[in-house]
Specification:
Number of domains: 2
Strand order of the largest sheet: 1-4-3-2-6-5
Order of helices and strands: EHEEEHEEHEEEEEHEEHEHEHHEH
Distance between the termini: 25 Å
Number of strands: 16
Shape: elongated
Number of helices: 9
Largest sheet: 6 strands, mixed
Helix content: 25-40%
Radius of gyration: 22 Å
Length: 340
């Protein structure tokens, strides 16, 4: 079904005046909330881009009912920087109502000339309804909880989830628009420490949509005054062993106590963590490297360790340190072509 075959009813995105819904790049948390509430959701996937565009193929939005107003719809994610999101929301409302998928075409070559893209490109979007009992949706969320990659395969009507990786987005059938979209485990940052710099890193990571875990050995009984996924008070090495590690996880040792930071970094390096760093003066680096080598760290493992982490050129204030470290982590956890 193309963009012009059905006139979409008007639906306004909740909080459209201030589109902070576009900050969320991963639709799975919003999908989980909808399924837990027994509500349907509508998934929109950008499957083809021609010319220039703010987002790449594989980008997604999720739409869910707004309880307080039937003419409003809640959104997560964005495609175009406010060029088409409102119209996509109206089509999502139609899909939510009748269950039929839509294929939308915006920009160059689109028959709907009253919606243009400022970048001059063209976007093609598949819009599909996900019911609360959808087995594929449940499987998708199970893979996220288990921190394993999987592929969402759908033509808009039938869908399934298969374990494994591959390209971010494949079109299995170009004519029928059958998509295979890869989902990796959510990006995760484990910070050990409790000084202003460590807390700024944890806070900025949470704002940047990382699953953020703060480890503060023998720290206060009360959690930090900002939201994190977990707050733990044990030794970092023990916490890492319990949490499990993978290449979508970053670890930052910032307790400034070598028995904690060295143990945590050694565990993170051996767990094939995607990014491992330790905050401290450059003058301490040789002794720390020697201690890790004596503890059994290999040359390859030590080569992956970031000492004095963060991108260069920033100051030493907590938020500047945090900004540099989060930027470096994003680079490390985002190999070329892996994210839209």
């Amino acid at each position: 079904m193309t963009h012009t075959e059905i006139a979409a009813p008007f639906a306004e995105i909740a909080d459209a005046d201030w589109p902070t819904f576009g900050w969320s790049d991963d639709i799975r948390p919003a999908l989980a909330r909808a399924l837990e509430a027994g509500q349907p959701a509508v998934l929109a996937t950008l499957y083809k881009v021609e010319g220039s565009a703010p987002r790449g193929a594989g980008s997604q939005m999720l739409f869910t009912p707004e309880d307080t107003d039937t003419a409003r719809i809640a959104a997560t994610g964005y495609f175009s920087g406010d060029c088409i999101e409102g119209d996509v929301a109206s089509h999502a409302a139609a899909v939510m109502a009748d269950g039929g998928p839509r294929r939308l075409h915006y920009g160059m070559g689109s028959p709907w000339i009253d919606i243009r893209l400022r970048c001059g490109g063209a976007l093609y979007i598949l819009v599909e309804r996900i019911d609360p009992a959808c087995p594929a949706a449940r499987s998708l969320l199970d893979h996220a909880r288990a921190r394993t990659s999987c592929r969402w395969i759908s033509d808009g009507t039938t869908r399934r989830v298969e374990p494994g990786g591959g390209a971010l987005l494949d079109r299995e059938d170009a004519d029928a628009v059958c998509l295979a979209r890869r989902y990796d485990p959510p990006r995760r940052l484990i910070v050990s420490g409790g000084d202003p710099g460590a807390l700024a890193v944890a806070r900025l990571a949470a704002l940047s949509q990382f699953e953020t875990i703060l480890v503060r050995p023998d720290g206060p009984a009360s959690p930090p005054p900002f939201p994190v996924s977990q707050y733990r008070r044990e030794d970092p090495a023990r916490a890492l062993e319990d949490l499990g590690l993978d290449r979508w996880t970053a670890y930052l040792g910032a307790t400034h106590e070598d028995h904690h930071d060295l143990g945590g970094c050694l565990a993170a390096l051996r767990g094939e963590t995607g990014y491992v760093a330790m905050i401290g003066a450059r003058s301490r680096a040789p002794a720390r490297l020697a201690a890790l080598k004596a503890a059994g760290a290999s040359a390859d493992e030590l080569a992956r360790l970031h000492l004095s982490p963060g991108i260069s050129g920033l100051g030493k204030a907590p938020w500047e340190v945090a900004t540099g470290i989060i930027a470096e982590i994003m680079q490390a956890l985002n190999p070329a072509g892996e994210r839209a």
